[in-house]
Records
---
Amino acid sequence: MPATESSEQQQKPHAVAAGVSMRDLLASCAAANTISTPPRLPDPEPAQTPAGHREAA
């Protein structure tokens, strides 16, 4: 391996992947999760209460 290739590889930053910040990456994942999750089903209606009101004993 020539000396020029090894010095070029050492100068490249390794922490940045394709110029995307961690905040942007997490925001895109949250947006994708929100879009791909189906909406919640409505809560079931509560059971009908009896027409007559019963007094406590």
Note: The CA atoms of residues 45 and 51 lie 17 Å apart.
---
Amino acid sequence: MAFIIGMLLTGGLASCAYESDGDPRPTAVGQSQRPAPSVPTKAPEIIDVEAGNYDELHRRLATAQGPLLLADDGPADGPGVGFRKSATVTTAGPYTVTAACVGTPSAQIFLSQDGAEPLSLDVDCSGVLSRVVLLRKGPIGAQLTRHDPTGAWRGAVAGIKITVP
């Protein structure tokens, strides 16, 4: 008797299932249902200005001499602003930091190491900043931040090189 009651309950519950075309479909492992964020497309005139600014930036950063520890560059305005790069200092001591920017009056780059106060480099884009800093053994990070997060997209760029003197 219990078997018959169980069969009736199972059949009754199965008939209560509800499906709709609006229900989300199962996805493959690792897929997300959210669309990836998109960065607006740069206008052709901004791309041209930015390319010229990168050429000038690379000329300015070429003044850095010595074996390279870290180098990076990136946009200094617009929605895809900034860069973040890390490296490992294998020998503590003095290193030369060279930074520059083009297409904006100034840029701010931060250097950070575990256990040390972050170093803010305020870069005047009319020239090249070059400074000797003492670095500890271990990881170091460099990050470009933006002074004006709502400013116009003009093709400005900034970069850094850290070298062993």
Note: The chain has two helices and eight strands.
---
Amino acid sequence: MELDSTTKQMQYTPAPPSMSVSAYPPDSTAVDHTEYQPANPIAQPPPPYAHPQQQPQTANTNVSVVTVAQQPTTNLIAIADRPPNYLALSLVNLLCCCFPIGIAALIYSLRVDSEYSAGNYQEARRASNTARSLNIAGITVGIIIVVCCIIYVVVSVAVASS
């Protein structure tokens, strides 16, 4: 076991000359009742480990102590609102209006959610706008096709009845 530096520096004072080995038990007059003092009074053993750390005591002087605590910082992260994906409108467009434009609108509608989940908010907004435009175009083309079919049927029936 290795001794620390404070233990190595301690020097013990020799026993007073009044004590001798032959005088056992010592007389009360011959025994020096002074308390043991190490030769180096500054060196003290380290505090035991079980005790909490003690605050150093300072002398009263005209010194002001200012403690500055850092204020906690708040980081605001702006999360963009989830853009609408127009999924229901794309399915209606796919099934009822215009099949090819409905497929494209459905693909862009599904891309909105995947881009938003990946954190690409601008791409999600762009896919949402494209899905809306394709749905409007598909519905417009579907209405034009339905009107053309109605006109064709009316003209065919009029020609057949004449």
Note: The radius of gyration is 48 Å.
---
Amino acid sequence: MSDDKDKKDRTEEENTRTTGAAMGGAIFGASIGGPAGAIFGGIIGAILGEVANDSKKKGDNDNG
């Protein structure tokens, strides 16, 4: 996904967004598919949190 330099330069907001998405995905996955669903939901949630961080960065730069 990202290199080590990007991970060190992350803001608290970005970390919170990714963590929240992973937790939400894990809870949703667990309610649908049990323990296996929690694992897959957490992974998918973390990926979606990173995508949201990337789009937020691009949107902030484009919109001024």
Note: The first helix runs from residue 4 to 8.
